[in-house]
Amino acid sequence: MRAVVFLLGLALCAGASAQERRNAFDDPFLQVTSALPGCPVPRPPGFTEEEVRREAHVRAQHGNSCYRSGRCRLPNSYLYDREIIPRVRQHIRLDGRFDDTSVWILGERRLVTLMGCVRTREQAEQIEKAVLLVDDVMGVINFLQVGTAARPKYPLR
């Protein structure tokens, strides 16, 4: 009986570890502001091993198409993200209009995803426009919500 319980436990652990998520591609993810307590915290980027295998091909194809078409100077558009995201954070923090928000940013393929909470719809639009001004940012995905009560459009931690 103990052996059966032990093997069942091992099987459950193996299944759980197979579903563990890790940031296999080192997608930059930062919290920029934190003034709204209770803002739903986004889940950091992460992939299961199966998702990593599927995503690797897609990322190679998407990342290189930018370079081949002449829209990127680097051979893969994902190479920009590590330097873009810290500059986006600096730009948002120095702007001053967004000090009363709780915002996280994620970089993938020169696209910046905004997640978190703002005070007004206008503020969400202003932060999106501000991020578009940062050099090398190709686009913004705006998942910001007004206030902290709504169900967010992004996955939660």
What does this protein structure show overall?
- The protein has about 160 residues and is α+β, with helices and mostly antiparallel strands.
- A hairpin with a 2-residue loop joins strand 2 (about 100-110) and strand 3 (about 110-120).
- Mean pLDDT is about 90; it is low at about 1-15.
- The longest helix has 20 residues, at about 50-70.
- The chain starts with a helix and ends in an 11-residue tail after the last strand.
- The protein has helices at about 1-20, 50-70, 80-95, 120-130, and strands at about 30-35, 100-110, 110-120, 140-145.
Radius of gyration over all CA atoms, rounded: 19 Å
What kind of assembly state do the chains in view correspond to? single chain
* Outline: globular
Which residues form runs of ≥5 with pLDDT under 50?
A: 1-16
Assign the structural class, choosing from mainly alpha, mainly beta, alpha/beta, alpha+beta, or little secondary structure: alpha+beta
Counted beta strands: 4
Q: Residue share in helices?
A: 40-55%
Biggest sheet statistics: 4 strands, mixed
| Tally of separate helices | 4
**How large is the share of residues in beta strands?**
15-25%
